[in-house]
Amino acid sequence: MDRSWHEVRLVATAHAVSTFGSFLNLVALGLFVLHLTGSTLQTGAFMAVRLAAGFLAGPVAGRLAGRQRRPYLMIGADLVAAGTLVLLVAAPAGVRNTVLYGLAVALGAGQTIWGVAMRAHLPTMVGPDRLTRANGLVVTLRSVGMLLGFASAGVLVGWLGYHVAFLVDAGTYLLSALLLLPVARRTTAVARPAAAGPAAAGPPTAGLRAPGRFGLLQAVAPVVPAMIAVRAADALGSASHNVGLPVYATLVRPDSPATFAAIFTTAWAAGSLLAGRWAAWRAKRVGRGPSELPFGVATCLMSVCFVLAFTGLPVWLLVPVTLAAGAADGYAEISYTTRLQAVDADLRARLFGFASAAQNAGFGLGMIVCAVLLDRFPPLPVVGAAHGLALAAALTFLVVHVRLRAAARRQPAEVAS
Question: Residue 245: pLDDT above 90?
Answer without folding.
Answer: no
